[in-house]
Amino acid sequence: MHAAQQTLPPNAIETENGAFFPSGSGSGGFHVRDQPDGPRFWSFYDAAGGHSWYGPPISRVWEYAGSWYQLFACALFAQSKTGGGARLAPLVDLIVSGPPVSSSFSNVTKLEFDGWPRHGSGPRIYPPIQVFINSRPKLQTGTARSAPRSALGHVRNLFANVGLEQVGGQVRVGVLGQRYRAYFQGKPSRLPAAATVPERLTVGAETASASVGTSVGPLGSATGALAGRTKGLDGGFGCTLGSEPGPAVGVAHMNSLGLSWSREQFLWNTLRGYSPPALPTIATDRNFRVSKEIVGLLQFTPAYAGGGLYAPAKYNPPQGLHLPASDPRNYFAQFVRGIVESRKLRPRGVTAAGLNPISRWIPWNEPDICRPRMPGYAWGGVPHARWVNRTGASGPAGPGELDEAGRRQRLYRLVQVAFDAMIAADPKARLIFPSLSLVDTTCDNSDRRMAFWDGWTRFLSGQRNRQALVDNGFFFHDVSLTLHKEPERVAEIVGRYRAALDNLSETVGETDPLAGQRKIILMELGLQDDPGLGAYFDEEDVAHFTIQAVANAFVAGADEVAFHKLVDYPLTSLAGKGARTAVRYMSHVTRQHPNRRKWPDISGERAANAYFGPVRIDLPGPGFVTTVIYNRRRQPLDVTLTFSPDESAVEPLIHLADHAGRERQLEPGAYRLNLQPPRSTFNAYGKNWAWVGGGTHVVRYSDSVRLTTDPAIPETAD
Predict the structure, then answer these.
(1) The CATH number of domain 237-590, selected from 1.10.405.10, 3.40.30.10, 3.40.50.300, 3.20.20.80
(2) pTM (predicted TM-score)
(3) What is the H or E stretch that residue 435 is in?
(4) Per residue in 254-267, pLDDT tens?
(5) What pLDDT, on the 0 to 100 scale, is given for residue 201?
């Protein structure tokens, strides 16, 4: 074997002439190799940084115009058939010059929307990125194509062949190959559809010496169904932007993770004027016609309604909200009626235009983010930015300005308008309240950190027409949250919203007609770096986080969870394996089960960080219990799990997996686990912080089995 081990992820399988990268369950994946009469992509890949630079292959080799090509997560390889070695192809130039994503949304705009600089804005290279290039002569970046741009803690430059970014003080090659595949799949001149069909690894002479043992570790591969009487997909697991990888790839990815639905965006601001025939063009699922459920997110105000195509104008509250939803001058109501009607399920099981039917809608996203320069800011726009810039977010608003109180009231009215228009178009549709987040204290310094929601309940309690309030179910059905926070904070915030829904009748002053029926949907679950605190995480941290966060969400009262975004959980990565394990082991747990428990019952930022020890979460389901265990201590911790079956138990099932999905089936008895400490800690405010626990394990066992731990995990912690 000539492979440099640092160039391969743990699950890659070395072969005589390269390596095979599995991309999902079974034997599917893609090979990178040297071929006797073809390209020598493996030698180039292995010598020039391999997986650590370019990521895994995400296509087969294909031929075009006298050259071979192969696509990787971060780059495009090419080699002429008439001679010369392998090289990087001009990926960025191909993206920008290729077929547009849609007639109204150019590839340049799409790249910028994804956080990359505007192509062709004048070359200038960020000094640390230049140092990175100088120290790596084998990295064929090509010439600079942009000035640097700082976005979400990343400083990014575009070059002809790659995108480079600095994150947490380290420079790396950014993921652009996935964008290329999403833009050009099925375009014969760019990326033939056949090139994206996974290969099959046949175990034979070629792979007889493959070193697969080191990728398995202490746990092996188990087969067969897990404990429980309910089988099949759990409808409570979804994702955002399942359409992004393309139709075939997106569906296969969702199936491999066990996901039932995807939240897709409807970008209202891209309409030049209201036109029913143009409605399909603004949807991210326009080419993603699938049997999966689609949840529709409606956002951004077009110019004809007082907004614009770009920020901050597109964040403006639309004009006409004060008018009845039936008035054509209420532009948002007109739009909601049209889009809901266009996606309503017809008697024969299709929509009028053959598009994905949609019955759940979200009017806007994260309106509680209040600072115009904050990532995710989407509500308030120009009039709000003027007030913030002039007063620093204090004092009365002047002409043409919108203060914080006015911004919130406009949003509450928008929800009421959306509900009226939606129900008029489809009485069976459900409105999900605009996704709320755990915002910065400059936006919400209240004790509960639910100021935006508390304003909504005051809005409801102040409605004069009490009968209409009750008849309309308080103008919403469910609540969605976007929590890119540590697992214990997920438990804290979900628990508070669950209590708020349970007490809604008392808060509003009328009996909630949907009491016990409202869902809490964790609409965006993900782990994000915090450069301001020095908190940086890799895909292994994400794997631990995903299992812990889903368990904390369910134990606190959540009903559904969506991974944000689908492409951030590649099946070949530890992040994807963690997500798949979370879904596999926590599917069909009974939501709001009275026996769900967490030991110790810690939640919140400071409470969780003050506890140093193991955590256990129990989630019962029909015929089974799923237990998640992880370690918050800063040192390794040995824990013995003892499985004791009841006398009536008949062949109980017990399956154990770690954060990477390495799984084995157990028999009743005692098993010792070594729980590693948190992987990524950081120092801030005079303390050492661990947002994500270490040593994550998840076990699913028949409910005729009792699980005890040694040492015992305390029920409470000071």
Answers:
(1) 3.20.20.80
(2) 0.72
(3) strand 430-437
(4) 999 999 999 999 99
(5) 64
